[in-house]
Amino acid sequence: MIARGSGVPEWWDRAREGAPAQGAPGRWERLFGEVEAGIEDADRAEFAVEVADHTRGEVGRLRLADRLRAAVGHQIGLVLPAEQTPSGVLKEVGPDWLLLAEPPAREVLVPLAAVSAVRGLGAHSMYPGSEGRVAATLDLRYALRRLARDRAPLIVTLAHGGVLSGTCDRVGADFVELAEHAPEERRRASAVQRVSTVPLSALVMLRAG
């Protein structure tokens, strides 16, 4: 043992008196532990913020069509202008339209621009762009041309609440021409009352069958 007065500084004795027992963490060890814990907490918080930002970014890229594509084959309901609320099984979704199967066996084509709300969507979405480049080009005009090709009698609801019945004759860049006739009639020259040219922006819903 080193006796007092041997030239050992007084602070050495004080340090030895305050030294921890063997196996107990020292002051520096505790300090480093606290620093490491603080770094880990900061890393976790930063990671959580990054995940939240990434999630918000991903959600921010989703379109209504992406949400709808994940619901194909499921029952949904729509809220449309003119107090229209069709519901049925979602059959197809395009970039700016959807096709609903109403009971008992009637198809309803709806432009997405006319949709005020969708009811019954689940939590899932399809990844933006996963429909493929070809499907992404099949817009409302494509769906209307299918109706024109099938020569199916239609009940057409317009944005102001009016209703037309007839057969889709031609589809232009931003309009559709409807040969108007009674709903129960097929398109024949003798049955056609008039031909109406309707802007695509005025379409709310087209029921076929």
Give a short summary of the structure:
This protein has five helices and ten strands, in the order αααβββββααβββββ. The protein has helices at about 10-20, 25-60, 65-70, 135, 140-150; strands at about 75-80, 85-95, 95-100, 105-110, 115-120, 155-160, 165-170, 175-180, 195-200, 205-209.
What can you see in these coordinates?
With 209 residues, the protein is α+β, with helices and mostly antiparallel strands. The chain has a domain at 64-208: SH3 type barrels. The chain has helices spanning 10-18, 27-61, 64-69, 133-136, 140-150, and strands at 75-79, 87-93, 97-102, 106-111, 117-119, 153-158, 163-171, 175-180, 194-199, 203-208. A hairpin with a 7-residue loop joins strand 1 and strand 2. It is elongated, with a radius of gyration of 35 Å. The N and C termini lie far apart (106 Å).
Apparent shape:
elongated
- The CATH architecture of the domain at 64-208 is Roll
Strand runs, count: 10
* Helix/strand order, N-terminal first: HHHEEEEEHHEEEEE
CATH topology of the domain at 64-208: SH3 type barrels
State the name of the first-level CATH class of the domain at 64-208. Mainly Beta
> Portion of residues in helices?
25-40%
Strand content: 25-35%
Which parts are unreliable, with pLDDT below 50 for 5 consecutive residues or more? none
Radius of gyration: 35 Å
User: Termini separation (Å)?
Assistant: 106 Å
Spatial sequence of strands, sheet with the most strands? 5-1-2-3-4-10-6-7-8-9
Sheet bearing the most strands, described? Answer: 10 strands, antiparallel
Number of helices: 5
Going by helix content, strand content and strand pairing, the class is alpha+beta
